[in-house]
Amino acid sequence: MNPRGLLASASINIGLALVVLILFSILKKQPSNAPIYYPRPLSKRHPITILPPDPFSPSRFLPCFSWIPRAFRVTEDEILEASGLDALVVIRLFKFGINFFAVCSLIGLLILLPINYGGQNDPSTSYHSMDTCTISNIKKGSNMLWVHVLCLWFISFYGLYLLYKEYSEILVKRIQKLRNLRDRPDQFTILVRQIPFCTEHKALGCCVHHFFSKYHPYSYHSYQMLYDGKDIEDLLNQAKHVQRKIQDLRKKCTVKKHNGEMLLLDECLDESMKAALLEEKLQELCHKIRQLQSEDMLKERELPVAFVTFKSRWGAALAVQTQQHTNPLLWITGTAPEPSDVSWRNLAIQYKFLPLHKIGVILAASLLTVFFAVPVTAVQGIAKFEKLKKWFPPAMPIQLIPGLSSVVTGYLPSAILKGFIYIFPFAMLAMAKVGGSISKSKEEIKACNMVFYFLVGNVFFLSLISGSLLDEIGESFSHPKNLPSHLASLVSSQADFFMTYILTDGFSGFSLEVLQPGLLLWDLIKSHTYCRGKEKDLYLCSLQYFRIIPTVSLSILIGIVYAVIAPLLLPFLLVYFYIGYAVYINQIQDVYNTVYDTFGQFWPFIHHYIFVAIIFMQITMIGLFGLKLKPAASISTISLVLLTIMFNEYCKIRFLPTFQGYPIQNAVENDELDQKGGQMEASYGKAVGAYRQPCLRPVSFTQSESDLTQPLITSL
After folding, report:
1. What is the chain's mean pLDDT, rounded?
2. How far apart are the first and last CA of the chain?
3. 454 near 424, Cβ under 8 Å?
4. Contact 342, 438 (CB under 8 A)
5. I need a labelling partner for 443 at 20 to 30 A (CA). Which of 357, 590, 628, 715 fits?
6. Are residues 121 and 245 in the same domain?
7. Do 205 and 323 sit in the same domain of this protein?
8. Same domain, yes or no, for 375 and 492?
9. Same structural domain for residues 326 and 470?
C-alpha cells in the first residue's frame, strides 16, 4: 500500500465519521427518534431535557456535539450506580487503552520513530509506505536495537502495572457492590444438578428437601424444582398472540362521542364478533395453562435440577464450594445466576449431554473460522493491488481513473473486513446459546472468547500470512536465499493495513454505532407500513459485550504488537479509544439497558486478552531481534516473556478465585450487617420465589381478562 492509499483511507474515514456524527446530532433532536436514541431514560420515565420543546425551533436542525464533552464529565460512580459493574468494565477497557497508548505514543514518537527513520544510510528499497518508520529500517546488527529492547521492557512492565491496577480496583468495586446489593437472590441461592430420583416417593423434589435438611440443617431454607415447560411456553405464546389481536381490534373500533353519549359505529360490528371469538379462545388457553401449571401435572415434568435457597450467604457459599456426595457426578452444585440472567432452556439439557453440546459448538466455530479465511485472503488481495495487477491484467484499468486505485487499496479492504467482522459475533452468540450455559452472561462470555480468538487467528494472523504470501509468490522462487529476511519484515509490512483497519473501526465503526442506521431504517419501514398510526415501541436492548469487548481487545492487541515495531500507529489508536470512550458512555446512558450484572466477571477474560497481546508482542520481538542479528537482545526478551507469564500466574492466584465465587469472609460480613439491621429474613425471603420459571408464574392477562367482562363497544 502506498502513502496515497493511507491518505485516501484516512480522508474517507474521517469524512464519513464527520458526516455521520452531524447527522446523528440532528436526528437525536427529533422527538420521533426518541425511541431509538433515548430508550433507556424513556423506559425509566425520566424526562428528556435535551429535546427542544418547540417542534419548529431552528435548533432542532443545527448540529450539536455537546454529548461528547458531556460523556467525559460522567463519573465512574454514576456509571456504576446506573448501569452496574459490567458496564463500567467496558468503560475501564477504553480507559486502559487511553492510559496505555498515551504513554506508548510519547515513547514511540519521541524515541523510536526518529531512530527507525534514521536507522540506515541507504534509502529503503521497499515499496511499503511505512517501512522507513518501522524497525525494519534499522540495519542488521545495529546497536540502536538496544533502545528498542529498553522500550520493549518499559512498555511491557507499564502494561503489566496497568493490568494489576485495573484488576485490583475492579475487585474492590466488586466486593463493594456485593455489599451494597446484599438483598440479591443469587447470594442466598445455589444451583443443584444431577439430583437422584427418589424411588420411595417417585419424585425428585422430596429428595432435595431430605438431602439438604440432613446435611445443611442450620442453613437450608427451601428449594425450587425446575420443570419441562415447553408445552406451557407454547400455550403462553399463543395466548399473548391472541391478546395482541384483541387489543388491535379494540384500537380499530373507534368510538366517537356525540352529546356526551357513546355511539356504535357500523365498521365495528365485524371487529366485535371477531373479538368475542378471540376472547373465548383466550379464556380456553388460560384454562389449559392453569391446568398444566397444577401440582399434579408438574410432578410428571420434573427435571433433575433445582435452585436451593439458604438462610444465610455463608450457608450458600459453603454449599457451592464443597463436594456434596461421594459420587461427584451426583448433587453437582454451582453458583446461581441472577434471576434475570438465567437461561431456562439450557437448564433443561441433561447434564450428561453437555459435553456433546460444547464439542458441537467448538466444531461449528472452527468450521466458521476456516470458511472466513476466504474473505480475509480476498481482502489482502485487494490491499496488495500493486502485485495482483501483474497476475490479473483485467484489474489494470482501475489505475486509469485518478485516485481510484488509492481508494481501492487504502479504504476498501478494511471496510470489507469490518463488514464481515460485524456479522460474525452474532453468529458466535447463536452458537454459544446452544452450548448449554446456565446463564445469558456465561453465553456472552463464551461468545467473547470465541470471537476474540477468531479475530486473533483470522483477522490478525491470517492478514499477516495472506499479505506476505502474495509477495512471496515471486520472491521465494527467484531469490530463495532472501526468504528469511523477507519474513523478518512480515509484521512491519502489514502496519499500513492495520492502520487503515484502526481508522475504519474507530472513525466509521464508532460513528455508525452511535447513529444506529439499522434501527433508523427499520423504524422508518414500520412507521410507514404495518405500524402506521400506532405508538412506537422503545428499541431497548442490552449492552452487547460479546461484540464490543473482543473487537476493542483486538485493537489493543494490534497496538501492543506494533508499539515497538511501528510507533506511527499508536496516535491513531489513542484517538480510537477516545472516540470509543465518548460513544459508549453515550450509549450506556441513553440506549442500552442493564439486563444483568455479574459484578465484573468479564474483567478476568479482558485481562487474559491483554496478557495474550503482550506475549505476542514479546514473541514477535524475539523473532525480529534474531533476524536483525541481535541474539543477545532475543535472549533478554525471552526472560521478559517468562516474567510476564509468572505475573499472569500470580494474578490468577491473587484475583481470579474472588471473581469466580463468593468468599466466605465477605459472605459472613454481609450476613452480620443484615443481622444487625434485622434484615436477614427479608433478604433471603426475596430469593424464595425469585427462581420460579417464567412459564410457571400465574397467567398475567389481567388487563385483557378485565376487558372480557366489558363490551367491546358501547351503545344506547
Report:
1. 82
2. 81
3. yes
4. yes
5. 590
6. no
7. yes
8. yes
9. no
Cα→Cα distances 154→92, 99, 102, 621, Å: 22, 14, 14, 14
The answer to whether the CB of 84 falls within 8 A of the CB of 595 is no
pLDDT band at 643 (very low <50, low <70, confident <90, very high): very high
* Whether residues 345 and 376 fall in one domain: no
Q: What domain range is 581 assigned to?
A: 3-52+61-82+97-141+355-596
| Nearest Cα to Cα of residue 380 among 356, 347, 416, 348 | 416
Please list, in sequence order, all residues whose beta carbon lies within 8 angstroms of the beta carbon of residue 156, skipping any fewer than 6 positions away: 614, 617, 618, 640, 644
Half-sphere exposure of 370 (CA within 13 A, CB side): 6
Instruction: Compute the average pLDDT of residues 374-399.
Output: 54
Q: How far apart are CA 546 and CA 428, in angstroms?
A: 9
- Give a yes or no: residue 345 inside a domain: yes
Q: What is the pLDDT of residue 306?
A: 94
Q: What total number of domains does the chain contain?
A: 2
**Cross-strand pairs, 334:** 191
Q: What is the pTM of this model?
A: 0.87
How big is the chain, counted in residues? 716
CB-side exposure of 264: number of CA atoms within 13 Å? Answer: 12
**What is the distance between the alpha carbons of residues 65 and 598, in angstroms, rounded to a whole number?**
33
Go through 653-662 and write b for each residue having 16 or more CB atoms within 10 A of its CB, e for each that does not.
eebeebbeeb
Same domain, 275 and 344: yes
Question: Looking at the structure, do residues 245 and 361 belong to the same domain, yes or no?
Answer: no
Residues 535 and 460 in one domain: yes
